[in-house]
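Protocol step 4 of 5: obtain the predicted structure for the target chain.
Materials: sequence only (see below). No template structures provided, no constraints applied. The aim of this step is simply to have a reference model before the mutagenesis design in step 5. Sequence pasted as it appears in the construct record:
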Amino acid sequence: MAMQDKIKELLDRRVEARLGGGEKRIEKQHSQGKYTARERVAMLLDEGSFEEFGMFVTHRSTNFGMEKESYLSDGVVTGYGTIDGRLVYVFAQDFTVFGGSLSETNALKICNVLDLAMKMGAPVIGINDSGGARIQEGVNSLAGYASIFQRNILASGVVPQISVIFGPCAGGAVYSPALTDFIMMAKNSSYMFLTGPKVVKTVTGEDVTTESLGGAEVHSTRSGVAHFVAENEKEGLATIRRLLSYLPSNNMETAPEMPNNDPIERYDNKLNDIIPDNPNKPYDVKDVILGIVDNREFLEVAPAYAKNLVIGFARMGGMSVGVVANQPSYLAGVLDINASRKGARFVRFCDAFNIPLVTLVDVPGFLPGTGQEYGGIIVQGAKMLYAYGEATVPKVTVTLRKSYGGSHIVMSCKQLRGDINYAWPTAEIAVMGAEGAVEVLYSKEIKANADPEKQAEAYAEKKKEYNDLFCNPYNAAKYGYIDDVIEPRNTRYRVIKALQSLQTKRLENPPKKHDNLPL
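Step 4 output (structure tokens):
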């Protein structure tokens, strides 16, 4: 065969591979408002940067007549490219080929990408759109999943791993995304569950739709499995690009520093009036976050789940930071099981990837009740405590208002190796609020000594005494638990200066095989 013929054969094969399962199946994918695997990769990466591997891979199965049907690439597109000029590895399941189901060779392609990402120290983005295991391949498909999971586990905390769900992701397939750092879903076209509606109906008798069992809304509001939800695929991929801009490529680097045109000494006068005079009145902590970060830009993570705790990424003085803040406008900002899990995982992610933590505190305590105690709030709350205590990245804490009891400790206090702890003049740092404290300390005395009509007056007097002593930041500052009391409008400047001073921080935990955090 002449050279030109061989080149023509190569080009023909490339055309065939790019067609996946064929024009009809591509049209069907488009008719459902979904893009093909290669279209998604092209949208995600910098234009023209994608280098594909394994284009000519085919399956090896001969069971159930499979040898008669074979497609180049075998249902997954793999390779590398760049996002904002930085190296990333990607795989995208191709639903037009056997429903994107996982075969032995398909898994080998994904494992190859994960191995390369680890060697090069680059993030991995997996775009999932698959019917699950390729049943015709039996145990080989299961072995393929297990091989992928093992790599996800070893890569955890070494390179950022992001999962994008743009279609079905069911059965054992859900565990790869669950092992990664962030999960993105799209409204009305993504779903994740271990067992589908038919199995649920057979086993439990429940009637449930695909959407209400494992759709984007369920996982972003109720289960907390999904961290981001997009209106459509295009918006979802743009969010992934934005997310990566805040992250380093691996655990040995710091996040890229961006040029900053927002003056660090910028005052936000609104912050001087944001805390209501009534301590029981809420305000939106996101207004505080936007007031202190660069250009009022904040990428919130899991915004619809456990809304009593706000987490997300921002820049301060051009540096990437992870923000953790209690939200007084939802459940008064209390910590509960879901908020503790959400916060702990985010803090551990930031610590693994050298992203400093800025913590804004306004927390009245942990949510009481049998539901929380039976659900293990003791262990769940300890996760958050553990995450902050374990973290060695720079930690700057600002107490805005309430910081009571155990929840004060959990929110990056000085004794959990908080580096610089500030407070606003409105801060109240105490074991509990005045109401409860006076009840515990003086109830017997007042009832024994005061006339019934004078008891209310006695209570009020003791409450004022307690408030004067503890409902200010100066008592904590007296003991050195607060480094300085700062003017709210000056918070941005003080936090950025603190972060700049902490850039050379060196702190290591004792050597160990691994920890045994309270799970």
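Step 4 remarks: The chain has three domains: 3-245, 269-432+472-501, 434-470. The mean pLDDT is 92.
Proceed to step 5.
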